[in-house]
Amino acid sequence: MMDPEIQERIAARRAELDGLKEQLVKQLAEVRAERDELAVAERVWQRMSEQLADERAQAGSPVVQVAGRAVRVVPERGPGVLESALPAEYQRILAAVRAAGSPVATRQIGEALGVGTGVRGKLEPLRGKLADRGWLHKRPDGKFTVRP
């Protein structure tokens, strides 16, 4: 026959372990549910980032906010970066430089595009961005050519 005190201790410990087991089962269920939610969130994030990348590739250069205005970013020229990635105004500048057939000054490009050349600095920011990013080449005489 078993000692009643030992039997009580065993029963108390069993009850304690049963309570701990219930807690752990509940925690495990919560952890599994959260992991499932994270897996779904990860799949949604992956899908959305792929869609955004596709949209950006189709739309050309990305639009950013500068001083509260939406401005298209001029991408660096590099392998795989097509001229179509440039905003329309920049594409027109490159086309005008190509059409000239020889190195041209900024004023000539402005005249070809119909931009007022009487006001200094109207066309220069556009030209500067294209030259800085490798789309145009500035010669020592101050004229520009399209980079090959």
Task: Give an overview in words.
This protein has four helices and four strands; from the N terminus they run H-E-E-H-H-H-E-E. The protein has 148 residues and is mainly alpha-helical. A two-stranded antiparallel sheet has the order 1-2. Strands 3-4 form a two-stranded antiparallel sheet. The longest helix has 56 residues, at 4-59. The radius of gyration is 34 Å and the shape is rod-shaped. The model has no long low-confidence stretch (mean pLDDT 77).
Q: How would you concisely characterize the structure shown here?
A:
With 148 residues, the chain is mainly alpha-helical. It has helices at 4-59, 88-100, 106-113, 124-132; strands at residues 63-66, 69-72, 136-138, 144-146.
